[in-house]
Amino acid sequence: MIPFLFTKISSIANSPALIxxxxxxxxxxSNLKTHVLRLSCALLNLNISKNDAVLIxxxxxxxxxxxxFAVVAVGAVVxxxxxxxxxxEIAKQIKDSNPxxxxxxxxxxDRIKQFxxxxxxxxxxxxNNPMLHSYLELIRSTPTTSLPDVMQSDVAAVLYSSxxxxxxxxxxxxxxxxxxxxxxxxxxxxxxxESGNVFLCFLPMCHIFGLSALVYAQLQRGNTVVVMAWYExxxxxxxxxxxKVTHMFVVPPVVLELIKKQDMVKEYxxxxxxxxxxxxxPLGEEIIEACSKTFPQAVVCQAYGMTETSGVISFENxxxxxxxGSVGPLAPSVEAQIVDSVTMQRLSPFQKxxxxxxxxxxxxxxxxxxxxxxxxxDEEDWLHTGDVGYFDGEGRLYIVDRVKELIKYKGxxxxxxxxxxxxxxxxxxxDAAVIGLGDAEAGEIPIAYIVRSSMSSLTTKQxxxxxxxxxxxxxxxxxxxxxxxxxxxxxxxxxxKELRQQSVAKL
Length: 507
Known about the structure:
By secondary structure, this protein is an alpha/beta fold. It has 18 helices and 25 strands. The strands form six sheets. It has an eight-stranded mixed beta sheet, sandwiched between helices. A five-stranded parallel beta sheet has the order 4-3-5-6-7, sandwiched between helices. Helix 6 links the parallel strand 5 and strand 6 (119-121). Helix 3 (29-45) crosses helix 7. The N and C termini lie far apart (52 Å).
């Protein structure tokens, strides 16, 4: 995937590849290639060889991609770890993946020093400790040599799923997976012969959305990636204005904040923004339309993907007229079918069922977990996504919810996302989550967790009436719980199992 990354370098060598949003420090494509090559050779000198695992524990920075590319360039395997993880959570990943080296920042070193593994510090000179190495010193002092041969079928990375619906598992992704995903993610730009776009990246690079669909895919295309260490709305809007950002990949909580704080948006020049692409969780039609009014010059659309599929499965783009609520047509080379999870029969357009995926983007399997792999990938290589959706008559895909998250009320299926989308249209509701709670008579009842705006005096009865006026009787909310915040993963997915635990504790 590294030669593929630099296929266009002769024409873009001096163009900016990575820009730090805060400091404006820049790596051109030529700089990027040099840094990757030098760090790759340094890894060889540190006895990192093909198929060895290297854990990267770091917030976003312009050095994170260099580290990632350098590891895969020598045929080693990257284990991206969430910088928010505790030492205990990191220990689980280390036990599962058995890395020989850790690449981190000095602020996080205390969390991993107990593992007694050699480390490269991305942002500080190393001390006299022989186990610590400085990124800058390695880049400056390492002579370049030839690198090992790497095949497309070789493993490039193991990315751990968020674990929102069960224990976290490591998805094994190959070089070919990343390359196919990059081609799919930029297929609209290829068709439109676009170049020189500027993408803003505050999505975590330890996650597939930030790493594959954004960083790798867009750099391979020759686009500039402006990097933010973390998301903050003012900083994001300032970066759009300063660096003339054209594309922004987001998650639903960001879209909600953009809608709720339109006055803040108006303080900045965001006229260069052409596309806002949301992923990680479905957005309702009303929310998309509200965001489109805030950014009238930009297309607001959705994408659908998974860690297990190297990123993208389907996405809307500016080449076709958007259909609010849809996650677009399938990406090139992707096959899909909608299947009744009870009868296992393939369903027709507009019929809702589980989405099954096949194609070159599907992972090899879960690391050290044959049982979990067999449960998600069948003998005909169909990946059972666990997501409920349907196709319309023109091949556009719509996501309804997760199979395991559908609420069964007296035999009727209730999609939490449908109720959440309606709740978020209420002017006094800042955030919302809906879960099913066990009930002796109904099986499960829909209950809502609500975050009210600061001056709101919204009552349970008012919330229930607001929903009752818009849905069938079986979808009505049976309980409302007001809370200060909705627990979410780093990419914005609602952590429903935490809410279920809270609900059980309150009974």
